[in-house]
Write a structure and sequence with these properties.
By secondary structure, the protein is of the alpha+beta class. The chain has one domain. Helix content is about 25%, strand content about 10%. It has 5 helices and 11 strands. A 5-stranded mixed β-sheet has the order 9-5-6-10-11. Strands 1-2 form a two-stranded antiparallel ribbon. The N and C termini lie far apart (about 75 Å).
Length: about 325
């Protein structure tokens, strides 16, 4: 008796059909996964926004971008950065259910203090975007040449940075005081009250994404004399930035970059701009605690308007 079976041609046809169905389904599955990751990222930023307001309720001002004694004799001559370097992320950590992890932090020794290393090098899930393909392990702070900084400080990573406004005062001549230069809500030694955000809390970006796939960022703060270095894939488009870029970003147009505005996910990919690995844009949290997804195709002047706290521009995130 002859046994009937599939011919080779039939098997190939079935395999081709299955391959075609998989090819049709895979993009949909990937899109669903990315949508879930984007939602998780937005939820993290929502928690950050709530923590910002919890800090505001207790102190009557928003946290500083980071703290520095700019009159200290051992300040960094290039930027006037100095200890403690405590950043906005560490300031709000107690309101993100991390009070136990940060309770032992010594604000006098600062971020670079040896006793604080177990704290500032921690990996905190709230500060990591699931879409980011960047490294997750703590990183050794580097100096401008790429060598390990003399402090030996090691910092936990973050995929989120605070908005300092249009300017990047960490470049150019050093300044003791950034007031009058930084027009964003969070910068070095800022103590912005809600009433000072005259553009409206709902129309001012406070914190947004910056993937570790582009450059090093930290949740705890900065180390004077340290630098934020770009990943190898971006070294052709951007150079390392001073320590402030470990926790802050700017939008432009800055005085030294007339007319240049860095929208999220700008292909130039600078170390001190917002950048995510979501396909179409980046998540941000506004001053009122609301989260929004900013498309990469946003009008540049609108983005610059959202980056200032009291510029008087007419803009809406919608």
């Amino acid at each position: 008796m002859r046994r009937r079976g599939f011919t080779l041609v039939e098997l190939l046809v079935v395999i081709a059909i299955i391959g075609g169905l998989v090819g049709l389904l895979l993009p949909a599955v990937q899109a669903a996964r990315e949508s879930a990751r984007r939602g998780q990222c937005g939820n993290s930023l929502r928690q950050i926004g709530i923590a910002m307001h919890a800090f505001l309720d207790g102190r009557r001002h928003f946290p500083s971008g980071y703290l520095a004694d700019t009159a200290a004799v051992d300040r960094d001559p290039a930027t006037f950065d100095a200890p403690p370097g405590t950043g906005w992320g560490l300031a709000i950590a107690p309101f993100l259910e991390e009070a136990a992890a940060t309770a032992a932090y010594d604000p006098v020794a600062g971020v670079a203090g040896v006793a604080n290393r177990p704290i500032v090098s921690r990996r905190l899930a709230t500060f990591l975007c699931p879409s980011s393909t960047g490294l997750r392990d703590p990183f050794a702070v580097l100096d401008g040449s790429g060598a390990v900084h003399g402090s030996g400080a090691v910092l936990g990573r973050s995929d989120y940075v605070a908005n300092a406004g249009h300017e990047d005062p960490w470049d150019g001549p050093p300044r003791v005081d950034w007031r009058g230069t930084s027009n964003g809500p969070l910068y070095r030694n800022s103590r912005l009250r809600a009433a000072e955000v005259t553009d409206g809390l709902s129309k001012t970006v406070f914190v947004g994404e910056h993937s570790q796939a582009l450059s090093q960022k930290a949740w705890a703060g900065i180390v004077p004399g340290g630098f934020s270095h770009p990943a190898e894939a971006f070294r052709s488009t951007t150079a390392a930035e001073h320590a402030a870029a470990l926790v802050l970003s700017h939008s432009g147009p800055a005085a030294g970059e007339a007319g240049i505005i860095h929208v999220p996910n700008d292909p130039a990919g600078h170390c001190d701009q917002m950048y995510s690995q979501h396909p179409a844009g980046a998540n941000v949290v506004l001053g009122d605690g609301a989260t929004r997804f900013i498309v990469a195709a946003i009008d540049r002047t609108t983005w610059a308007a959202l980056a200032s706290a009291s510029g008087g521009e007419v803009a809406t995130v919608d």
